[in-house]
């Protein structure tokens, strides 16, 4: 084939691709249908480009309104969105309306736990360090009443297994979010920051000395009043740390939040020791 013919073929193919792109951009498909279709088309035409993770915004005009399709996939730590994946009920095979789903809305059969969903999504709580613990407890009781394995004694083996795994998953989510320390550690984990266990690295030496003195005073406490005084001081410190951590997380100062959570870990340990000490006086 001559060079002139090859050039003409490229022009025709290029024009066809542009027409295909224009059709995709102006097609009356829904956003959820057109965007994956467009992404697939782009990935097959430009295999060496990571189109799905690009920051390009495609503009489409429809019915006089501007719609913006952003092909950048955003992985939210709040809910671990699974994107365009649609899940179906394992029993009746019908699509599930949302995620996480505990029961199929059609056949009312319990579903397996969604391991990709964050604990905040499972417990229907706002993604915040100072969450509403009363709402958390209400949600926990509601879920356990419906998911507890005792409710599935007469069901199939698969349903019993799913109820047990769902119940255990809800328990773990509840216990993690209930206390400020474990909640904060989990929030940092979602952001990709790990808080080391049992390590004094990064802790101010002056703070460590102060903590040692508090522990020594608690060990030497001779009366419930002395131990209670240490407990009250510790509680006040934990309250102040809670406010500081919440502010740091709101500002996106994750390393500062990590340092404050490390302090909270030590004061939370002292709080537990105070309870043990008080039990000795009973």
UniProtKB/TrEMBL annotation:
Keyword match Cytoplasm: yes
Pathway(s) per entry: Cofactor biosynthesis; iron-sulfur cluster biosynthesis
Keywords, alphabetical: Chaperone, Cytoplasm, Metal-binding, Mitochondrion
GO CC terms in record: mitochondrion
GO molecular function, one term: protein-folding chaperone binding
Alphabetical list of PROSITE patterns matching this protein: DNAJ_2 (PS50076)
SMART domains: DnaJ (SM00271)
NCBIfam families in the cross-refs: hscB
Family membership noted in the UniProt record: Belongs to the HscB family.
Record's function text: Acts as a co-chaperone in iron-sulfur cluster assembly in the cytoplasm. Also mediates complex formation between components of the cytosolic iron-sulfur biogenesis pathway and the CIA targeting complex composed of CIAO1, DIPK1B/FAM69B and MMS19 by binding directly to the scaffold protein ISCU and to CIAO1. This facilitates iron-sulfur cluster insertion into a number of cytoplasmic and nuclear proteins including POLD1, ELP3, DPYD and PPAT.
Name of the protein in question: Iron-sulfur cluster co-chaperone protein HscB
Taxonomic source organism: Monopterus albus (Swamp eel)
